Amino acid sequence: MSAPSALPASPLQSEFAARLIAWQREHGRHDLPWQNTRDPYRIWLSEIMLQQTQVTTVIPYYTRFLERFPDVAALAAAPLDDVMALWAGLGYYSRARNLHRCSQAVVEQHGGAFPSTVDALAELPGIGRSTAAAIASFAFGARATILDGNVKRVLARVFGVEGFPGEKRIENAMWTLAESLFPKDGGDDDISAYTQGLMDLGATLCGRGRPECARCPFASDCVANVTGRQRELPAARPKKAVPTRRTWMLVLLDGASVLLEKRPPAGIWGGLWSLPEAGDEAALEKRARAFGGARELEHLAPFTHTFTHFKLEIEPRVADVDAGRPGARLEAGDSETEWVPLADLDAYGLPAPVRKLLDSLRGSLL
DNA sequence: CAATCGTGGCA
DNA sequence: TTGCCAAGATT
């Protein structure tokens, strides 16, 4: 076990864990909904939801999810559509698909009990190295370090790690550093406090905006604080141009029912229900006719939805089913479609902008 | 290994 | 208003 060659040795390395554990016990968070349990199911669920997602966003989803699926067997037995509906709005929907697959793997391959080692956990869908370490350390007291966004920020500042942490070489160095800092001894409670302390320090005192260095247990040793470079560490992500895509969405109404189309299992909004789309006005008119819609498409106000990697300009169109036309209310093509009463939309997993669009429409129609 | 994959909050 | 990115994993 040697210090990472790319990083300078710090006198802090031997004291880091003990100081962090003490700080966590005194000043860390102890009452989040997924704390004060060693149930690997609850811990796993929270860790998956918290991937790239802030605590305040997760809490209501977590509560609802646990009510509906109180244990891994209940989740494994549920239809994927039900899981997607509960996940809708939380984003990164591959997490929900992998969550469902993972629950079934736990039931079918592990007898319904989560494995207790980092390596076995990391074999499961949706569980990578850091999430495996979080679950294993919280639920089973395993001696494995996490490395999430909080830890990267703390390490970059305290130890002065240069370079963008998303870059492979920098991330590798941080894994080595994080492992070298893990407490050499201590029981399960110490390990939990340590792992939680890494997260708490990054999420509370050492946030991205204005770190509260005066309250930090590492203030006197922290490279960023001592050199006044809190704003420059960790290095920012390299900027990239954000491309714009454009899509036409069809709100096809039959009375108080709307036509939904299930999205492909992979790609953006994979596995959610959405509105039928087309790449231009004429193609959407053609699709509307194929579904039994009237010829005239009413224009609604276009709007833009911004993703991390691109902007999507949405051109919404509304049409009614042409009741007098033979073959009205068809379900054409090989895509999966359903007519859904507007009052039942809550049971369907819709993309956030589609949810907003239909909610506003429902308000004006009813 | 760099790109992909959501959404909402906040500076 | 715009930019930035949060308890990352997968391909």
From TrEMBL:
Enzyme class, spelled out: hydrolase
Residue ranges occupied by any HhH-GPD domain in the UniProt entry: 49-204
Cofactor(s) required, per the database record: [4Fe-4S] cluster
Pfam families per record: HHH, HhH-GPD, NUDIX_4
Single annotated GO MF: oxidized purine DNA binding
Keywords: 4Fe-4S, DNA damage, DNA repair, Glycosidase, Hydrolase, Iron, Iron-sulfur, Metal-binding
Residue ranges of the TM segments: none
Catalytic activity, EC: 3.2.2.31
Protein name: Adenine DNA glycosylase
Cofactor: binding details: Binds 1 [4Fe-4S] cluster.
Record-stated family: Belongs to the Nth/MutY family.
Gene3D superfamilies membership: Helix-hairpin-Helix base-excision DNA repair enzymes (C-terminal), Hypothetical protein, domain 2, Nucleoside Triphosphate Pyrophosphohydrolase
The keyword Transmembrane is assigned to this record: no
Catalytic activity: Hydrolyzes free adenine bases from 7,8-dihydro-8-oxoguanine:adenine mismatched double-stranded DNA, leaving an apurinic site
Entries under NCBIfam families matching the protein: mutY
Functional note: Adenine glycosylase active on G-A mispairs. MutY also corrects error-prone DNA synthesis past GO lesions which are due to the oxidatively damaged form of guanine: 7,8-dihydro-8-oxoguanine (8-oxo-dGTP).
